[in-house]
Amino acid sequence: MQVTEVNPDYTNAALGVLSKTFGFQTFRAPQDQIIAHVLKRQDCFVNMPTGGGKSLCFQIPALVLDGTSVVISPLIALMDDQVMNLRQMGVRCASLHSGHSLPEIRKIESELFKGIIKILYVSPEKFLSPRFRETLEALNISLFAIDEAHCVSQWGHDFRPEYMRLPEVMNQFPSVPRMALTATADPPTAREIPLRLALRQPQIFRTSMDRPNLQYSILEKDQGQAQLLEFIESKHSQHSGIVYRLSRKDVEASAEFLQSKGIPAIAYHAGMEPSLRRKRQEQFLQEEHIVMVATIAFGMGIDKPNVRFVAHLDLPKSLEGYVQEIGRAGRDGLPADVWMAWGMRDFEMQRSFIERSEAPEQRKEMERRKLRQLIDFCEAGECRRVTLLSQFGESYTGPCGNCDQCKNPVQKRDATREAQMVLSASKRTGERFGAVHLVDILIGNLSDKVKQFHHDELPTFGVGKEQSPFSWRWIIKRMLAADLLRTDAQGHWTLQSTEKGQNVLFGRDTFFLPIQDPSIERLNKKDKNSGRRKKNRSSPVLSELESQWSENDRKLAQALRLRRKEEAASAGVPPYVIFGDKTLYALVEEKPSTDIELLAISGIGANKLERFGDWILQEIRSYS
């Protein structure tokens, strides 16, 4: 293999590529340090949040160094999207995966051997194939970049066994630097990645996982689809977004519900024909204002930057999965919402999946821990960012001012006495009964089962009669969420106390609940929903920035959007590939009048100036 020489003036070369190709004038820390490290032919591990600019960390070295850089990526959608974007910038790149025909593969291989392709994206399966190994031997390889590196962790949320074997091939090229990149890794996974990928004395680059542009909101599910509709209508009636559901059936139901209310929604799940899935994905990428309702089969690798919200109408499988999924919102850095409605039924379902699986006990215990982390995040009474980032080993000084807990803090009351009543009733009945029976005991309901087991003779019979059955069920759900109670190991719904529950029962710890009475809150929600007026969806919900513009600026923005859409249709690419909303906003705000001023706009490089500069300036002059 030919040895790659490093350009000694890598700083200027990297800055030149950043400006000319990508249209940015400065790096975001620590992009410059990472790129300098790679250009010195040294290994590194990069753990940066979605939208933090990870891709530039391998794309720029690939364009500076002599030879071809190989990027290993787990999903076809991710590869094809990045190739499409790079080609619009004039970058010579390609991808190799199972979606290519034999003639396409032959053409790409021919270009590789001629040294035409600077960046090659390849799936892990293709990378490990004997034919591709032979191809690599004939090439001048400048870099191996392993994207979505968390897939290497066998205990992670998105394990891909092929990732474990990547060093088999990379070890054949000892002089080629390696970099591993991910946006989603808790501390154990982050420690595992460099070891599994055989990185050699790697420099670790880890930035804050915080994404300040995201606004977090989590609420208790009650008439979930109506709550979702209220959220979309009130904030995102003219925006693109993703709604995640757990099952295929729920995906179809929610998409049909939103469609019936006038929301342009489409469904996506793994049970669909591949051709229909491709069509739906293309529709989501191409259209400006559309809602995708999907299982987690959709989204990873989708690089649409102007997704203004991600909503969960079911509990995700883990906190890592949640972070991965909300990562699709606001990738352009503009404000976006991440919203979730969840209920204890979601928790019970996830726990049932764990207990009834055939996984080894070690795996089950890990999944229980991850579910516990997720519930702690949902139930936390403090700033969402403080709770979320702490789970990933990061200390964050709150409050953030951009989450539901900061904007509308919930007052809590001491509910230790009620918790002790529930725990005592459970203990006195041998921890062999579920919530319904315990509630009957607490309120003094002489049911057939209470009479059968003589539980009306217990000291706890009737001690909670001042509260409604609904209130007691709600308290028990909160106790489950707080890990004071658990269902039995076989997944039945008999309730057992935990160590934390024992501490509360015997007065060593306290238990708090929101002050609002749940039954009143539920009635208020129903009244609000039933009296809600239908909104006029013909007028878009303006962003905070757009609402401050003059009427002329809004007309300019609309003209740029329409022309962008026409150019995208002509090129057969999504509108955001021409330029994103962040660039559009900058054009409206700055109103450049010359080529030099236009080049100073973030996202406009030399290639896009040559292709689109004339009509952009013409539109701006028309509204100046």
Structure summarized in a few sentences:
The chain has 624 residues and is α/β, with parallel strands linked by helices.
Give structural notes:
With 624 residues, the protein is an alpha/beta fold. 47% of the residues lie in helices and 12% in strands. The strands form four sheets. It has a seven-stranded parallel β-sheet with strand order 3-4-2-5-6-1-7, sandwiched between helices. It has a six-stranded parallel β-sheet with strand order 8-13-12-9-11-10, sandwiched between helices. It has a two-stranded antiparallel sheet with strand order 14-17. The radius of gyration is 27 Å and the shape is globular. The N and C termini lie far apart (57 Å). The model is unreliable at 1-7 and 517-542 (pLDDT under 50).
